[in-house]
Every structure is written in C-alpha cells, then in structure tokens.
Amino acid sequence: IMTADIKPILRTNAPTLPCPSCGKPALWAADNPSRPFCSERCKLIDLGAWASESHRIPGDDLPPASEDDF
Description:
By secondary structure, the chain is of the alpha+beta class. The chain contains one helix and two strands; from the N terminus they run E-E-H.
C-alpha cells in the first residue's frame, strides 16, 4: 500500500561530489535533475553566470563580423 508520506530512499552507492556553485555535497545520480549541482537554485546561478559572461572559455577574440560574412 502506498501512502503520501513515503519518501524516496537515497541510494548510498551513488557518489556525491561538491556542487560547483556552492560546494555542498551533490548526489551524482541519474534521478538528480540538477546534476552536477546540488539544487535547481545552484544550477540557475551557474547559468546566469554564463549568460552574463562572468564565466568564459579562454581564447582569442574573434574579429568583428562584416556584412560579407552573412
């Protein structure tokens, strides 16, 4: 019989790694939709950092595009 107060059991064999955003333990399992982050909040904070260009992949700047490039 299933009741609403049953909570999922965390697998003890799933490894935990530090969350790249806050450093808290993050469960590395297929059923963690925020993986490799510990939460949706940390996932969105990281996405915002990429969108605002706080995070970047190093490399040379590209020359400005000209109309001939299109």
